[in-house]
Amino acid sequence: MHSWSAPAVPAVPGEAAALRLFDTASGEVLPVDAGPVARMYVCGITPYDTTHLGHAATYLAFDLVYRQLLDAGHEVHYVQNTTDVDDPLFERAERDGVDWRELGAIETDRFRSDMEALRVLPPRDYVAATETIDEVVEMVAELLDRGHAYRIDEAVDGHADVYYRHRATVDFGYESGYDDAAMAAAFAERGGDPDRAGKEHPLDALLWRMERPGEPSWPSPWGAGRPGWHIECSAIARNRLGMGFDIQGGGSDLAFPHHEFSAAHAEAATGDARFARLYVHAAMIGLDGVKMSKSLGNLVRVQQLREQGVDPALIRLGLFVGHYRTDRSWSDDVLADARDRHAAWSRAVARGTGADAADAVRALRERLADDLDTPGALAAIDAWAGATLTGDASDPGAGAAVATAIDALLGIRL
Ligand code: ZN
């Protein structure tokens, strides 16, 4: 599937700082420590109801990761999927009386357009679930061969779906760190089916769902059906990035069950110890202090803000005011503050001569490399802009130098 077009990223003079990120599995901030080609997988959207600010915040966080890796001289192999076969998509298509493929295509286009407007660096491989059914089939076969998966007895309800034995890997649970009670609650809440009759254990996860009337299906050795959710990302990431890739990313609501099972499926299929080296999660975005959700009907969409004439750079700035791992809220005040900040930075840059640029760029790099400390990064540029505008301006090329760093490292062109 085609991705979207990449914004230009200028080179920043001076020395980059080594990126460290909070890893959910270890509970620590760790060096990313990637090779010449950094390998990153970030879970993509299910293409309906996009792109709300929660989505935007997640992809912006990993855009910052991408930018810091580029700054440090890495090439980045970035892979993202689209879950274009899933129950919520079918339900929405049915509600709206449209074909699920058409809905998926429209919403995926909208997402691409929003990402481009936000100047998010595109994945090298942008992969739809429907393009990778053969990869899923191959991996489910591996899991069955190794005894890590089983089929539901057809006598139960006529559907011999394939399930994954959740304890197939010895350290299942390492990624999220969830205990049994937390796993049970999250599994039920986030797309799992603990009550499915015929499973060996409530936490066993769906790998292959046999065809039901009215649902799309693809051929497999077990009969026509469609993939489960976790195996999709598992197969896409493993086949493009290999095992032990650097960063598995997504929203914090994916830590369990999605990322736990994506990792476990690949580890069980290959016998390799680790799916990814770091598991990185971005927090949720609310509106005026209330959790943003489809059920509450308070989603703020990027498209809606763009239609109101909001500069997408202000969306970036507004979301960067809080740290990516802190649940935070969008509001008119956040937008107004972003507008003021953008104006102040632009005024300072336009002066040309400004306060010492090397110091400001060093501080910006240090703050971003420290687990994407965007509040600290914004404060560093605020300090430089403040000094420049109040007369402490002796560095003749400072405006251009700081603008280049803000463009490259924060993705904001002034
Ligand atoms: Zn995923």
Fold topology:
Layout: E1 20-23, E2 28-31, E3 37-42, H1 53-71, E4 75-82, H2 87-96, H3 100-117, E5 125-128, H4 133-145, E6 149-151, H5 154-157, E7 162-164, H6 180-189, E8 205-210, E9 225-227, H7 229-241, E10 245-251, H8 255-270, E11 276-282, E12 285-287, E13 290-291, H9 302-307, H10 312-320, E14 328-330, H11 332-350, H12 357-369, H13 374-389, H14 398-410
Bound molecules: zinc ion (ZN).
Tally of contiguous helical segments: 14
For the sheet with most strands, the description reads: 5 strands, parallel
Number of strands: 14
Secondary-structure-derived class: alpha/beta
Distinct bound molecules: zinc ion
Strand share of the residues?
15-25%
* Strand and helix order: EEEHEHHEHEHEHEEHEHEEEHHEHHHH
Low-confidence stretches: none
Helix content: 40-55%
Describe this structure in words.
By secondary structure, the protein is of the alpha/beta class. The chain has 14 helices and 14 strands. The strands form four sheets. It has a five-stranded parallel sheet, sandwiched between helices. It has a four-stranded antiparallel sheet with strand order 6-7-8-9. Strands 13-12-14 form a three-stranded mixed sheet. The longest helix has 19 residues. It starts with 19 loop residues before the first strand and ends with a helix. The mean pLDDT is 96.
Q: Which characteristics define this entry?
A:
about 425 residues; alpha/beta; 5-stranded parallel beta sheet; 4-stranded antiparallel beta sheet; 14 strands; about 45% helix; about 15% strand; elongated; binds zinc ion
